[in-house]
Design brief:
This protein is α/β, with parallel strands linked by helices. It has 18 helices and 13 strands. The protein folds into two domains: about 250 residues, TIM Barrel (Alpha-Beta Barrel), CATH 3.20.20; about 130 residues, CBS-domain, CATH 3.10.580.
């Protein structure tokens, strides 16, 4: 099947915009809407992921992004809606558009009557930033225009804490992974708390993405997360809405207090690289690009593959980068039979498998941030032992730090006085009615 021309889709004006509400979790008021591009279902590119992948392959990704911005601004202006408009731009597109003054033109021509102060630019694909200074300059120009900046999908394994610290976005949208099934995963709760604390330190407002259940919404509300987005609050649709869906409003207005999950893992369990190893068989340097594609196609879970010679890693191939290159015209004919080293990272990040928490933290805060997108290679005395992902590294370091501050009985792992007191304080501060029962067993000390 021939991939449709993205330029033709833009020229024929068949792309449309849908709006999804972003709401205050304290009272349910609609704070703004995110603009999401939609393509015709019969065009061969039925979802945004396929649309933008095709645009990358055809070299029109930035023109497509700017077209989507113009569509969003025009549709928003026609709607006359109040609140903030969230629009998506990749870091590369933002820098390029501002350098060519395309974004100023889009703001001026697409949203008459809409001030830039009502616009929030969501920075996507920020893991691909190579020139941080150029991005910082672009962010400064954006703010000078009156618009605000947000980091999108933070915590998806490709996000940089360092970039958050340097860029200081007004808003940070936390990836839906941390929201999904939150009431049953204490480690996600602790991570959310840590990210919330970071946001308060850096002066950012947090948006929890992917809220789909009442329990998730209740926990996020009681955690103090300021804004939320997800199907429970409102699905994307052609026109902006004035209120969140009734089930979500019922949860927000409810006096019921969430019971936060407590961790049950032994406190003495220490984080180490050994716990992060994914057993992924490597490939030899002579493997062709065609064969490498077959390897990736056979297992969709593979994010990267290591190239190993005589037991020692010599390169790393990122799935996304490789497939993006392979999708370009004539790549297969020109490079399909060439060795896979031709498009590999020949200086990958190597991490010793016996390293502990301190060394993991150094990796996390280092200037070399490639591991976030591509992962890293785990070695033992220079010999290949497996792969590690940036997402798992961020999660492990965050959990390990929180583990040291966890308050629970060391024998039973049941919540101790501090978490119990905190829950009672939340009940009291919310003026909730509740019953409490306290039992004390005499002479239990010898057993404890």
């Amino acid at each position: 099947m021939v991939t449709p021309s993205v330029a033709d889709l833009v020229a024929h004006g068949v792309l449309t915009v849908a709006f999804q509400p972003i709401a205050l979790l304290a009272d349910g008021a609609v704070h703004g809407h995110e603009a999401l591009v939609r393509s015709p279902p019969d065009c061969g590119l039925p979802n945004p992921d396929l649309l933008f992948a095709a645009a990358r392959a055809q070299g029109v990704e930035i023109p497509l992004e700017l077209h989507c911005v113009r569509l969003a601004l025009a549709a928003w202006a026609r709607s006359g809606s109040a609140g903030k408009l969230f629009i998506n731009l990749s870091a590369r597109a933002l820098v390029t558009a501002l350098a060519q003054q395309d974004l100023e033109a889009a703001f001026a021509g697409g949203a008459r009557g809409l001030l830039p102060a009502g616009i929030v630019v969501e920075l996507t694909e920020h893991e691909q930033v190579r020139d941080v200074d150029a991005l910082m300059a672009a962010a400064a120009r954006l703010r000078a225009m009156g618009a605000r900046l947000a980091l999108d999908d933070f915590g998806d394994g490709r996000s940089s804490l360092r970039l958050w610290s340097e860029l200081k976005p007004e808003i940070v949208k936390i990836d839906k992974y941390f929201t999904h099934d939150l009431p049953r995963h204490p480690e996600k709760l602790q991570t959310m708390r840590a990210l919330l604390q970071i946001s308060q330190t850096l002066g950012s407002v947090v948006v929890a993405e992917g809220i789909e259940t009442a329990d998730e919404l209740r926990v996020l509300r009681d955690l103090g997360i300021h804004l939320g987005q997800g199907w429970l609050l409102g699905r994307p649709q052609a026109a902006p809405v004035a209120a969140v869906l009734a089930p979500a409003q019922a949860v927000i207005s409810s006096s019921q207090v969430a019971v936060f999950p407590e961790r049950r893992r032994p406190a003495q369990q220490r984080a180490s690289v050994r716990n992060l190893i994914e057993d992924v068989p490597p490939v030899p340097p002579k493997m062709t690009n065609d064969a490498l594609l077959e390897r990736f196609s056979a297992d969709e879970r593979l994010r990267a593959l290591a190239i190993v010679r005589d037991g020692q890693p010599i390169g790393l191939v990122s799935r996304q980068r490789f497939i993006d290159r392979y999708a370009k015209p004539f790549f297969r004919e020109l490079h399909g039979r060439k060795p896979c080293t031709s498009f590999a990272d020949l200086s990958p990040r190597l991490v010793e498998m016996h390293h502990g928490l301190d060394e993991l933290t150094e990796v996390l805060t280092s200037e070399d941030q490639r591991y976030l997108a591509d992962g890293f290679i785990v070695v033992e005395n220079g010999q290949y032992r497996g792969l590690g992902s940036g997402e798992q590294l961020v999660r492990t370091v965050t959990e390990a730090r929180i583990e040291a501050a966890r308050h629970a009985n060391p024998l039973t792992l049941l919540p101790g006085n501090i978490p119990l007191t905190q829950h009672l304080q939340r009940l009291l501060s919310g003026q909730r009615q509740f019953a409490a029962c306290y039992c004390d067993l005499n002479h239990f000390k010898p057993y404890n």
